[in-house]
Amino acid sequence: MKLHEYQSKALLSMYGMLVPRGGLAATPQEARQVAERLAGPCVVKAQVYAGGRARAGGIRMAGAPQEAEQHATALLGSRLVTSQTGPEGVPVHRVLVEEALEVERELYLGIVIDGGAESVVVMASRAGGTDIEAVAREHPELILRQVVDPVVGFQAFQGRRLAIDMGLPASLARSLAAQMVALYEVFIAKDCSLAEINPLVITRDGRIVALDAKLNVDDDALFRHEDLAALRDWSQFDPLEARAGQAGIAYVKLDGDVGCLMNGAGMAMATMDAIQASGLSPANFLDVGGAADPNRVATAMGILLEDPAVKRVLVNVFGGIARCDDIARGILQAFQPGQRAIPMVVRLLGANLQEGLALFRASGLNVTFAASLLDAIQALRELSNAQ
Q: What is the value of pTM for the model shown?
């Protein structure tokens, strides 16, 4: 789960890290009020789940409160398109107005879980304030790493080593190491999968400040962090993905026209691969789960049918914990009066198979039955040729 910049900075501040003075604004008038309190040059920053904001015009300098209000007017209610959003962009509902700092140097600081190292890794670079992915590709020697022993955690001496290797004077190494330790404490305490500060700046008066911040929290740990789970901004998602996420359904919108309803992530991925290999294209990833009841299936199928790009549907379900008749009842429940007619290819296997097939046969819907995944793919291709 991603956190907005202002949410991430609030957490960093709680753990002793320095962040710029500022405030959140949902209206241009609020942005002006924050700028007036800052009483000096400020920065207006769009709050979206995407990087690359500066190049896309999502971060703007303001020399006076009136200019901050003008920038907020332009940003709020718009859709910001960056290198990480796709052409549709993401909506801007809030802006962060912060003091403009006099920066002497920009650094990069990040913490990730590295599968190769089988541990948490703290990364740092003197090439902060730039596209760190490009730096890693073109100048990998600038990315410094310290593997963290999970028993003892990140140690101050490791931070000092990174600081010295970045070319910082010894007078700043201790302060920077303290900031690294604080970020690691946030990372562990909040079950993060990513913590990134780009840039971490050294100001002209010698302070080390998190000018930007990004925290991602592991979804599987959110049961321990109800306060963080409540911070998720569903407006940043595709509307169908947001509805599915709020219902606890694993759904990802894709670019094809074959709607997919499966149970089990492995079966879902294999089914989508088979569809793609056949020359067709899946419209979504949708896993209703192994213990899906009719109401959950109906919700999932309703989300799938709301996608106007879906021209045909493939149901590929193994009734293990979930029963085939429950799957059928849920799917049929989604087809309310007035629901658009759409052809379905249904492949069921497992518990209560015959009962499930009987429900589909009695429904009057346009259903083609398949005994195997290959048969189902062939049926989809025939439907595609007929449309």
A: 0.87
